[in-house]
């Protein structure tokens, strides 16, 4: 079964919805809140090959196709994780059919755990929002939305500033969702972050990817906000699920691979990438106060530890 | 069994008395004593309490632990010891249950991918669990005895001759540390008096008895003198999970002055002071005492017009700290998360 190419008209920015949209392309059905793990786990069921190697190759193809359609960091990290999970399982069981059974079972458990991760994160993060806090957030992040929802459920009163987040105005989408929760929200220009920083108490952003150094890759503009927050001594909190941990170690903005910076069809069609504007930037770990993940509250130095435990 | 019921009520009386003592506050209790008392109480619960399965024991300890920590939230040592015992129970149960030493009980990416499903339920009864846990608690008590000595033993590596060391208030750990170094080296100490309790005076008296050249100065002069100081060595009440400190009021000022002059700030604290909590809205570590010390009640007229506060503790963020010296060696603040994962289980962070 060869995957259908994704029609560009239905693209949207936010990474987790992009991944479910990618899932739709392969699975043929749209299911909200489902990470890209699902098409990959259905891939495990499909091939009738008899070897682990064959399975790996077919999964690699699936991941490549997904990335060609949707070039976000989450797809890459999720794919890597899934492949890793295959190799770990194959080490334990030498019989192929038994191995496949276990893999499918674990795949289901993995998917369930991942769908619960947002709630776990919200539970960990909302105590850090004081009553009367003013929060600054950037662009549209579903995890941040969930955290703020949990804070509202805990009867906290706070107000939110959202950056407009050009060029796709994701901030407006976030503001709309927040208004539905009855949270007082103000949309500010991206350029107004330095101006507004003295008024806010904390900054809360999501992440597309969390890199090995403990830094994050997120919508363009995040680095700026982090630098302003550091300059004014405001805590900068990041909320991200653990499947977003990716094996990259960028030392500066140039080190982030082009396939993450630009959209998939830009990469295919553009003549000179220097003319294009990147969609993401890298925020270094020294600017981040704490990361809230479903593995617990981590300091940036703890992130590489987690990655090592998995990949070594 | 009448004997068991009697012991049971005696035990809960003791716990009540302990909690009442904590709540009253009174004279500044030594953290090590609090830790020791907590561990003895927990050992009694394990020994005499009515339980047959590990799960029941953990619930029992958790309930008693919540009672004790609620009495005085700023005494984090109590909560730390409870969590240590819970971890010990999990470990002993795991060992008896036959789980391999390798398998990590903590959440990790690895576990996310390979675990077969839900976690343990601690249901199987093991008769030898009681004895094993009591033995482990005894080991912890022995470890507790040696913490100050272990820290003091590292003094010679950090203090060199003709250095000027600054400290604040009175910390028994720092006192032992400096005394140990003074046996072989000659150095000067400047003690910030740490108003309003002025415990720095007591520290200075004790140090000078050992022949260390000591100077006492007011807190306001900290910045002025800092340029001549080589190292700042302090103690603390609690170490938080992000590597921050809850220490006596005035420590943040000292830390900022040290940062400004790029003077290393060394914190001497034993591992039982490490708490898995993060600084957040709860602010439950804070303790305010009678403002009598700040503005005596004799100043009648002005008292009606103003608010007077006397906070006991200060928060020091991790960026200002250079090194933690504990009974297991020296560590950077960014490494605290690792030490925490070795001491406590994530499910116990919230008691």
Describe this structure in words.
The complex is a heterodimer of chains A (312) and B (351). With 312 residues, chain A is α/β, with parallel strands linked by helices. Chain A is built from twelve helices and ten strands. Chain A has a seven-stranded mixed sheet, sandwiched between helices. Chain A has a three-stranded antiparallel sheet with strand order 5-6-8. In chain A, strand 1, helix 6 and strand 2 form a beta-alpha-beta unit. In chain A, helix 4 (73-92) packs across helix 5 and helix 5 (96-125) packs across helix 6. Chain A starts with 14 loop residues before the first helix and ends with a helix. Mean pLDDT of chain A is 79; it is low at 1-37. By secondary structure, chain B is α/β, with parallel strands linked by helices. Chain B folds into two domains: 2-106 and 123-144, translation initiation factor eif-2b, domain 1 (Four Helix Bundle (Hemerythrin (Met), subunit A), Up-down Bundle); 148-348, Rossmann fold (3-Layer(aba) Sandwich). Chain B has 14 helices and ten strands. In chain B, strands 3-2-1-4-7-9-10 form a seven-stranded mixed sheet, with helices on both faces. In chain B, strands 5-6-8 form a three-stranded antiparallel sheet, with helices on one face. The two termini of chain B are 31 Å apart. Chains A and B meet through helix 4, helix 5, strand 10 and helix 12 of A and helix 5 and helix 14 of B.
Please render the helix and strand layout as text.
The complex is a heterodimer of chains A (312) and B (351).
Chain A: H1 15-27, H2 37-45, H3 52-69, H4 73-92, H5 96-125, E1 133-138, H6 142-153, E2 158-163, H7 170-180, E3 185-188, H8 193-196, E4 202-205, E5 209-210, E6 216-219, H9 222-231, E7 236-239, H10 258-261, H11 264-269, E8 280-283, E9 290-293, E10 296-298, H12 300-311
Parallel strand pairs in A: 1-2, 1-4, 2-3, 4-7, 7-9
Antiparallel strand pairs in A: 5-6, 6-8, 9-10
Chain B: H1 2-24, H2 31-48, H3 54-71, H4 76-97, H5 109-114, H6 129-145, H7 147-153, H8 155-158, E1 164-168, H9 172-182, E2 188-192, H10 200-209, E3 213-217, H11 222-226, E4 231-234, E5 238-239, E6 245-248, H12 251-260, E7 265-268, H13 300-303, E8 313-316, E9 323-326, E10 329-331, H14 336-343
Parallel strand pairs in B: 1-2, 1-4, 2-3, 4-7, 7-9
Antiparallel strand pairs in B: 5-6, 6-8, 9-10
